[in-house]
């Protein structure tokens, strides 16, 4: 009968545990490095997008300012012309009121005070 070798399981189990612990540490290190790379990439992407947004905003603000300047000059002169016309019309209305105010007031008072009561034509009696 052949001889059986006696294997000490406690030593092999301890070696396996040490190997598993080492593998776990290496895996944790790999995962931590991957997380750091991911965070760095996200930060870089965020910074790039912020810079691009700022550039886009600046370009469009300049464009809007240029358009406002281009079209606001006409609006200012139009507004001044309208104000001037309104002032002329106000002066004309004041002069017309001074000239015809008493006659108009007299006419309005005559209409109000000279009331002739009548029955409405649609009233059925």
Note down, in words, how this protein is organized.
The protein is elongated. Helix content is 84%, strand content 0%. The termini are far apart. It is mainly α and 125 residues long. Belongs to the V-ATPase G subunit family.
At a glance:
GO terms for molecular function: ATP hydrolysis activity; proton-transporting ATPase activity, rotational mechanism. With about 120 residues, this protein is mostly helical.
Task: Record keyword descriptors for this entry.
V-ATPase_G; V-type proton ATPase subunit G; mainly alpha; transport; 84% helix; 125 residues; 0% strand; hydrogen ion transport
Tell me the distance between the termini: 143 Å
Number of strands: 0
Summarize the amount of helix as a percent range.
over 70%
User: From the helix content, strand content and strand pairing, which structural class follows?
Assistant: mainly alpha
| Low-pLDDT stretches | none
Gyration radius, in Å: 48 Å
How large is the share of residues in beta strands?
under 5%
Keywords: Hydrogen ion transport, Ion transport, Transport
Family: Belongs to the V-ATPase G subunit family.
GO molecular function, one term: ATP hydrolysis activity
Subunit structure: V-ATPase is a heteromultimeric enzyme made up of two complexes: the ATP-hydrolytic V1 complex and the proton translocation V0 complex.
């Amino acid at each position: 009968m052949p001889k059986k070798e006696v294997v000490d399981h406690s030593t092999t189990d301890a070696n396996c545990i040490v190997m598993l612990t080492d593998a776990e540490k290496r895996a944790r290190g790999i995962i931590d490095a991957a997380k750091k790379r991911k965070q760095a990439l996200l930060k870089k992407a965020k910074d790039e997008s912020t810079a691009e947004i700022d550039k886009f905003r600046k370009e469009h603000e300049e464009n809007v300012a240029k358009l406002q300047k281009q079209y606001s000059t006409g609006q200012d002169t139009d507004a001044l012309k309208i104000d001037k016309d309104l002032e002329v019309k106000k002066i004309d209305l004041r002069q017309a009121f001074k000239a015809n105010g008493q006659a108009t007031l007299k006419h309005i008072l005559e209409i109000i005070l000279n009331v002739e009561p009548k029955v409405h034509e649609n009233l059925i009696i």
